[in-house]
Amino acid sequence: MNFEKVLFGFFIVLALTLNFGFFVGDIDNPEHHHAMELGAALAVSLIATIMKFGDRSQIGSVLLATSLVADLQLLIAAFTWGYAAYATEAGVTSDVLASIVSLSGGALLANLISVTLLVAETIMIRR
Amino acid sequence: MNDIIWLTMRRMRTPLMLMILVYSLSVFGMTQIPGLDEAGNVVQVGYLDAVYFIAILATTIGFGEIPTAFTHAQRLYVFIILFPNVIAWLYSIGTIISLFVDPQFRAVMARSRFSRRVRRMNGGFYIVCGFGHTGRMIVRGLLKRGISAAVIERNQDIIHGMSLDEEFAHLPALAGSVTDRRLLDMAGLCEDIKHCIGVLAITNKDHANLTIAITSKLLRPDLPVLARSETRRVAANMASFGTDLTVDPYTIFAQRFYLALMSPTKYLVQDWLISVPGTRLRKKMKPPMGRWILAGIGRFGSRLALKLDEAEMPYTVIDVHPDRIAERPDSVLGRGTEAKTLQQAGVEGAVGIIAGTGDDMDNLSIIMTALELNPDLFAVARQENPENDELFDASKADLVARRSLIVARRILAVATTPLLPVFNDHLVSQDDSFARTVERRLEDVLDGRSPSLWTLALTGVWVESIRAASRENVSIRLEHLSLNARTPTTENLPCVCLLLERGSSRIFLPGPSQELIEGDTLLFAGRGGARREMLFALTEPTALVSLATGRHQPRGAIMRRIARKRAS
Prior knowledge:
The structure holds two protein chains of two kinds.
Chain A: H1 3-23, H2 35-51, H3 58-87, H4 94-124
Helix pairs in contact in A: 1-2, 1-4, 2-3, 3-4
Chain B: H1 2-32, E1 34-36, E2 42-44, H2 47-58, H3 72-101, H4 103-120, E3 125-129, H5 133-144, E4 148-153, H6 156-164, E5 173-175, H7 181-189, E6 196-201, H8 206-219, E7 225-228, H9 232-240, E8 245-247, H10 249-262, H11 264-274, E9 292-295, H12 299-310, E10 315-319, H13 322-326, E11 332-333, H14 339-344, E12 352-355, H15 360-373, E13 378-383, H16 389-393, E14 399-402, H17 403-416, H18 419-429, H19 432-446, E15 452-457, H20 464-471, H21 478-481, E16 495-502, E17 505-508, E18 521-526, H22 528-539, H23 543-549, H24 557-567
Parallel strand pairs in B: 3-4, 3-6, 4-5, 6-7, 7-8, 9-10, 9-12, 10-11, 12-13, 13-14
Antiparallel strand pairs in B: 1-2, 15-18, 16-17, 16-18
């Protein structure tokens, strides 16, 4: 068993599932989306990225790229949420929420690509 | 490019001048003649209107939109200027079209396109002079190994054929004199074309090859030149000014024949290594000892006679030229195609026959007649024309000397795997036990098909994983490189390392525990899949370390640090 792979697989899949959990629901309904879930998805995605630091293999670098994309999207989403909640008077309106959720949707896609790559690599190298 | 513009300008001078003259005069006249508008007022035609009207008149497009209906005076004027304008226009168009179909112009166009394509090449390529059967075989082989080619060929039809052939259509190719210095310059001899890695002079004219070799050695002494030459005089001449390889198909064949006589195992191993990858491995062949008959003692026959002398094999010569016969006692005058001459030469008591005349049909006839008289003969035939392949295949000859194939194989071997000739020389100079070891090891991995050969230089991107290993204080040995890095169980790749070159020292058939360091060059023979796996292991930074230590090497920086701490 390859411990590194277990750990990385765990984090990358967890990032995907958390992100998915945040994403599902009506896009502008605040009751369907919880800030904590977005935060958790961001944290887990960041950890998965850091685990790919220093990996110079072909697939390793692509995985690093895709998880960087996911991080970027989630960071913007989280920042938007924070800004709307604390710096504007209107708070998190359904308009703002819609753009936050669509950003996390983009991150979800990047997570999906990461997982697909992970599976492809596992099949290619049977060691 | 400059040539094209210059040629166009020179040809277009008269028609353009005529057109401008007629056009401007017509426009001027048009503006001078007064017209009438709908209300009946006198109006002058403006310059824009005049220019526009004459343009659609001259080009015979003839839109009906004119500012106002013409007066009779205007119509008369237009009637007069109509014909000169149309004629001047058609004259210009006609000249341009005739320029495009002009052979001289097309040659200039083809040359500039060729030069542009050569300059745009982004990988190593050879200049190939001559694209006959040999050239075709060589270029195909080069392309298979990822090396490109710029082709110059005398025959225009062949170049046309190339552009229709999907295999070669993307290569820069030019019809022209192969010995023309300017063409060679354009094809890559020019100093600023960096990707040119050598010159192959393989036309079937010795003198042309000689000229090409001299030209390229003078202009670019650093580029290797591989040349074909069928006479000893030219070969010696070429070698005298530093041609890197001269290929004389008859000498090569004579040497191989000698090898087959003296050591069938060496011959067999060499044959495996130089045959086209993926074809069926040939079986061992043993030319018999005893008296031979040598029909035809020209360029081919005389080289074989030398080797027969060297092998101390008795032989009887048959030839049509009395002067050649005169030098050799006990020779028979005749073609050898008739039973009588063959019987005179003692075909019944001979062990083998060599049909070495310059005529393919004669050679076939000699072999067929001789085999009828003595079916146990070992038959060797010389084939000149590559189109007779099927005939010679069907002729029951045990060994066929195919000129273009011999040249193509030798040049390809040197051009793509420079270490192979080194290995072959070693194989020939060693005793039979070395050849038997190579034979056994190749047989184990080859699966009945002849091997692919590849050279692996541990430099550039291929050395990264070796460096990664030395950072981990792990030394990589040959056995690690020849393991499959992608399977869970240890599985050896189907290949044999023939030669390891390190600086000036060479290790033949290095053992599995041979340590590899940066800068080594290795020559492998094996199945093509093995090469892919090997390159995979080399590009994957941790694969070799994992193979060498037997433990999985973490790929991320954090996990690597943890693993190192745990180990210490």
